[in-house]
Write a structure and sequence with these properties.
Helices cover about 80% and strands about 0% of the residues. The mean pLDDT is about 85. It is globular and about 65 Å long. The chain starts with a helix and ends with a helix. The chain is mainly α. The protein has a single domain, classed as Up-down Bundle (Growth Hormone, Chain: A). A two-stranded antiparallel ribbon has the order 1-2.
Length: about 425
């Protein structure tokens, strides 16, 4: 069966997004290898993750709004390339300063690609299938970053070492970016903005004949609410996946390969749920699905955090898998709800706002805080920080305004 354009773009961009997830998560997976060699502390590990997130926020807030005027294709391709190249260069670092510099540059590329790519797919998708295509695209991140990632990293650490590991995981993404550059086009709203700018010299954002401004995104309640949800959900993701490999190693005494297989369960379930949950939300609504995901994730986190030393690998794998369910919320709260809440001409900016602030606070402040908590009170205490973040995301989602086209139409028709 021949794929239509939106299907092809969703799969290829999704694959590049998935490999960028592996690139970014490698810093946590490879930590048991490079931390002893480079003599890093947990607080330094948290700071590396933090500065990567600051770079991602810079990319989101600076590049994403520019793509509304100059093209989402450019942001999707060049940001993507930067993320993979600098991730591969991580294997060359000799000290903390070099690690911070390279990972920050990687973060800028990472932040630059997300909003333009997903906004383009959201606009090209039929409204009744938007959740499906967005979920498919986003689902490659947990598949490679959280599912295959820990397994791949575990074997790479045990065979070629952490340096060659960073080199090798960057290669597939670079090849896919070259292929995507050959067929990706500008979505209609941005193509119109570019046409008007070239003909008149004016930078305008048009939707149905009406002019909008970048800052108009702050007029929409869902954008503000999902921004706060993003803070806690990104903390949920980055604190958990930065410190849980060390948690399994130091607290439960598992090897890198054992850790990889245990973590894979959470990654594969997140992949499956990111694939199907947005499709379900096309029918039942975005808000109910968010509440179920965050509720189950919080319950799993409690079971995971209270598990004592000596708990079997099978039980921990089940608890960890449940703990990851809340991470299946990303395509709904970070992309689908923001892009459905605003005109498409400012859709990339509507994604950039929650992405950027989520990165600055959730993926920046919280990993440093989590590292400090681990140094002072132990890694189990850091797991409780993640549980609280999941619970707060659940509470905030109670106040979301429904955006699923089918549910909105049903409400308007009585």
């Amino acid at each position: 069966m021949k794929l239509n354009y939106v299907g092809k773009l969703s799969i290829v961009f999704g694959l590049t997004w998935g490999f960028s997830g592996l690139d970014r998560c490698m810093i946590g997976y490879a930590a048991p290898g490079f931390m002893p060699e480079l003599e890093f502390t947990y607080a330094q590990l948290g700071l590396i993750v933090t500065l990567t997130a600051i770079g991602a926020a810079i990319g989101a807030w600076v590049v994403n709004p520019l793509t509304e005027y100059y093209g989402r294709r450019k942001g999707s391709i060049w940001g993507n390339l930067g993320a993979h190249l600098f991730s591969g260069l991580t294997g060359l670092v000799q000290g903390f300063g070099q690690m911070v510099g390279i990972r920050t540059l990687m973060g800028i590329g990472f932040g630059s690609m997300y909003g333009p790519g997903f906004a383009a797919i959201a606009e090209e998708s039929p409204p009744e299938k938007r959740g499906f295509w967005m979920g498919l695209t986003q689902s490659f991140w947990p598949l490679f970053g959280m599912g295959f990632g820990p397994i791949i990293a575990g074997y790479l650490l045990s065979t070629v070492g952490w340096r060659y590991g960073f080199f090798l995981v960057a290669i597939p993404g670079i090849i896919l970016i070259w292929y995507m550059s050959r067929f990706m086009r500008e979505p209609p709203s941005v193509a119109e903005n570019i046409r008007v700018r070239k003909e008149t010299g004016r930078k305008v954002l048009l939707h149905e004949g009406r002019e909008f401004h970048i800052w108009d995104v702050f007029r929409y309640r869902n954008v503000i609410l999902m921004t706060v949800v993003a803070v806690f959900t990104m903390a949920y993701l980055w604190v958990l996946f930065t410190f849980v490999p060390s948690f399994f190693s130091k607290v439960h005494g598992f090897s890198p390969i054992q850790t990889g297989w245990i973590m894979a369960g959470g990654g594969f379930l997140t992949f499956i749920l990111q694939l199907i949950a947005p499709s379900i939300s096309d029918k039942v609504g975005r808000k109910p699905v968010l509440l179920v995901l965050f509720g189950l994730g919080t319950l799993g986190g409690i079971l995971f955090a209270i598990a004592p030393q000596g708990t079997g690998a099978f039980s921990l794998a089940i608890y960890f898998t449940l703990f990851c369910i809340g991470l299946s919320s990303f395509p709904i709260y970070l992309v689908i709800i923001p892009t459905e809440s605003v005109p498409f001409t400012i859709a990339a900016t509507a994604v950039a706002v929650p992405q950027g602030l989520g990165e600055i606070i959730g993926a920046t402040v919280f990993p440093v805080f989590g590292g400090r908590i681990a140094d002072l009170y132990g890694l189990t205490a850091t797991m409780w920080v993640v549980v609280v973040c999941s619970a707060l995301a659940f509470i905030l989602s109670l106040f979301a305004k429904e955006t699923a086209p089918r549910r909105v139409a049903a409400k308007m028709n009585g």
